[in-house]
Write a structure and sequence with these properties.
Blueprint lengths: L5 H13 L3 H13 L6 H14 L2 H13 L6 H13 L3 H10 L5 H14 L2 H10 L5 H13 L3 H10 L5 H13 L3 H13 L6 H14 L2 H13 L6 H13 L3 H10 L5 H13 L3 H13 L6 H14 L2 H13 L7 H13 L3 H10 L6 H14 L2 H14 L4 H13 L3 H14 L8 E6 L2 E6 L8 H17 L11
Antiparallel strand pairs: 1-2
Protein name: Chlororespiratory reduction 4
InterPro entries: E_motif, PPR_At4g14850-like_plant, PPR_rpt, TPR-like_helical_dom_sf
GO molecular function: RNA binding
């Protein structure tokens, strides 16, 4: 073309941005100016996206100056693109300045500014702006709900969700993901059922979140139903849904189904491999988990820190101390992965369960960062197993600094002394517990799935309508076990 016009240049600039080649887009813009072809507002909307892809603040400010120069500073969608550009580069004050200077604003510019605050983690400013909006669309509501979800403010997210005048699939999925990310898995399943009742069909993102909730609750029957729904409705079994299914079946105790999904996947990424290795490890198939790790290497998939947590856990379950040490050392030597607290926790657990309590204590003291309660708790568990009161005392003292209100550690030490008839120490610990005012506030809980409903039970719980019948049955079972010769081990004597 001898004299390409502005539409041709705009098409090239937009095309290069679409193909993730922002530098070429900017070069064509310079070529366009040298050819005395004046830009339009569409030119600048593409250029701003190019600057965002480059994360180029100085180039972006230059483009901003050209927007003023050519008189497009009053164009709403150009200014909206600038708001988004500055917020993507963490320049929230510049975003707000552009927003305040706008002579006219539409719902998209308002939503973009709200989204900028959400991205910056400033939910107070986002909410103030949200409340000031003269008009809101579904995207605005979704943005605020997602912001609260990311900060773990489930109550505020739920309140907004319930107030929405209209919802789309993103709204439902955002709320389900909110509950899942904040470990409120039963609520996630309730919202999923409501979504279907309201006539919305789940997409891939929804399905992944729901499968994750099923995995954590052990809701195998519901997980199977969702898997069947996937197959009947032509969903693509990609790496995301695939890894979620592998994890769900493994956590629900159906390792055969987990392996079946894994081997049927045409494409496998690191998440899929990590899920199956963890599944094998949790079920006690340590050698198979290690073999799967080697197979992953053969497929040219590089492991990450999560992979090694599963590998070290597998070694712990099987008592493979030498193999665990070798794999732990290979992290930094072969794969250049720096061990984190979780990896040290696995190693302390491995050494402690094997009775190498001195080695475990030495490893803790050699760590470059401060050990947490999980690490000291693993050492204390090993002390209980091998009846090492000396090191147990050290672990409990550290744990009482980290978690002073946790009664479990004192209880464990107290029971250890009781087992060897050291009643003086038992009395001292009981007095210390009373003086410190420590009590068990958060009992452990279990989930049971019956007829597609999830029931949660805690110790001494009487909230279930059939609790009287449940306790009668438990008492009967207890009597039958005693008649059969079962004698319970010494429990808590608090």
């Amino acid at each position: 073309m001898k004299e390409p016009n502005v539409f041709v240049y705009n098409a090239f600039i937009k095309g290069f941005v679409h193909c993730a080649n922002p530098r070429k887009a900017l070069q064509f813009y310079m070529r366009m100016l040298r050819a005395n072809v004046f830009p339009t507002s569409y030119t600048f909307s593409s250029l701003i996206k190019a600057c965002t892809l480059m994360l180029g603040i100085s180039v972006g400010k230059t483009v901003h100056g050209h927007i003023w120069k050519y008189g497009f500073d009053s164009h709403v969608f150009v200014q909206t693109a600038l708001i988004d550009f500055y917020s993507n580069l963490n320049k929230i004050s510049e975003s707000r300045r552009v927003f305040d200077e706008m002579r006219q604003r539409d719902v998209f510019s308002w939503t973009t500014m709200v989204s900028a605050y959400v991205r910056d983690g400033d939910l107070c400013s986002a909410r103030r702006l949200f409340d000031e909006m003269p008009e809101k669309n579904i995207a605005t509501w979704n943005t605020m709900i997602d912001g609260y979800a990311r900060l773990g403010n489930v109550g505020a997210a739920k309140l907004l969700f319930n107030e929405m005048p209209a919802k789309d699939i993103i709204s439902w999925t955002t709320m389900i993901t909110c509950y899942t990310q904040n470990k409120q898995f039963r609520e996630a399943l309730y919202v999923f059922n409501d979504m279907k009742t309201n006539g919305f069909s789940p997409d891939e993102v929804t399905i992944s979140s729901v499968i994750s909730a099923c995995a954590h609750l052990g809701a195998l029957d519901l997980g199977k139903e969702i898997h069947l729904y996937l197959m009947q409705n032509g969903f693509n079994l990609d790496v995301y849904i695939g890894s979620a299914l592998i994890d769900m079946y493994a956590k629900c105790g159906s390792l055969d189904r987990s392996l079946s999904v894994f081997f049927k996947l045409q494409e496998k990424n690191l998440f899929c491999w990590n899920s199956i290795i963890e599944g094998l490890a949790v079920h006690g198939f340590a050698n198979e988990a290690l073999a799967m790790f080697d197979r992953m290497e053969t497929e040219k998939i590089n492991p990450n820190g999560v992979t090694f947590i599963s590998i070290l856990s597998a070694c712990t379950h099987a008592g493979l101390v030498k193999e665990g040490l070798r794999r732990f050392q290979s992290m930094s030597r072969k794969y250049f992965i720096s061990p984190e607290l979780e990896h040290y926790g696995c190693m302390v657990d491995l050494l402690s369960k094997a009775g190498l309590l001195g080695d475990a204590l030495e490893l803790i003291r050699s760590m470059k960062f401060q050990p947490n309660a999980v690490i000291w708790g693993a050492l204390l568990g090993g002390c209980k197993l091998h009846r090492n009161l000396k090191i147990a005392d050290i672990a409990v003292k550290e744990l009482m600094v980290l978690e002073p209100s946790n009664s479990g550690y004192y209880t464990l030490l107290l029971n250890m002394y009781a087992e060897v008839n050291r009643w003086t120490e038992v009395t001292k610990i009981r007095v210390a517990i009373k003086e410190l005012g420590i009590e068990k506030r958060c009992p452990g809980s279990s989930w049971i799935e019956m007829e597609r409903k999830i029931y949660q039970f805690a110790a001494s719980d009487q909230s279930h309508p059939a609790s009287e019948e449940i306790y009668l049955l438990l008492a009967e079972l207890d009597g039958q076990m005693k008649l059969a010769g079962y004698r319970p081990q010494l429990g808590s004597i608090l």
